[in-house]
Amino acid sequence: MANPRQKRKLRSGHYRKQSRQQARTYRKKQRQKGEIVNEAIAKVWNKHKSTKHNLAAIGLVNDPNTELNARKRPETKISPDELNMDLVKKLEEQAAAYEPYQAYCSRGEVVFIQNCLQKHGTNFQAMSLDLDLNKQQHTPAQLRRKVLKYAQTLDMIGTVEKIEGEVQQRLESDPEWRKKQAERRERAEQRKKNKQAMKLKKAAAAAAKSEFLP
Fold it and tell me: Which residue ranges make up each domain of the chain?
C-alpha cells in the first residue's frame, strides 16, 4: 500500500521527478568529492576506475567483512607480479612510522589539577567531593586519569617543574603510568631505528646511482 503522504505530493503539482540527467550529474559530483590524502596512493589512483578496482589493483580490500566471511572459497595465492610492490613497501614504511595520537592537558586543565593536588594531594575521593574546585563533579576515577594525563603532559613538554613527594610516589607505583612510560620509551627507540634505516636506504640508493653514472 502506497504512503498517503507520497500520493498527496504527487497530486500537488509542485513535485517534479528527478530526470536521468540530473541523477547522472548528482552521481558524478558525488564521485568527485573525495580527495586522496596519501601521496603514494594518489600517484597510482585511476580516477576513471571505481574504488573497488583501484583498491584491488593496489592489493587492498574494499570490504573486509566480505573477505573475512569468504572461507568456503578455494584459497588462491596472489602472485607478486600482479601487485605494485613499490607502493606496498611505501605503505608498510608509513605504517611502521605511524605514531598514535596522544591527548595532553589544556591550560585550564593544568590549573585545575594543580589546585586539586595542592589542596588534597592524591586523595581523589576528597577531590571529587570538593565542589568549590570540582565544579564539573568529576568522579574519583576521572580525576585519577586527569592526574596521569597531567603528569604525562609535564613529562612530554620537558618542563623544569617536577611532581614531587606523595604525587610522584603515587605515580611511580601506578601500573598504568609505568606502562605508558614504557610504551613512550619503546616508541622513541623505534623512531630512532626508523630514522637510521631510512638514512641507510638513502645512502645505498645514492651509492647505486653513482656506480651507474659515467
Answer: 107-173, 178-214
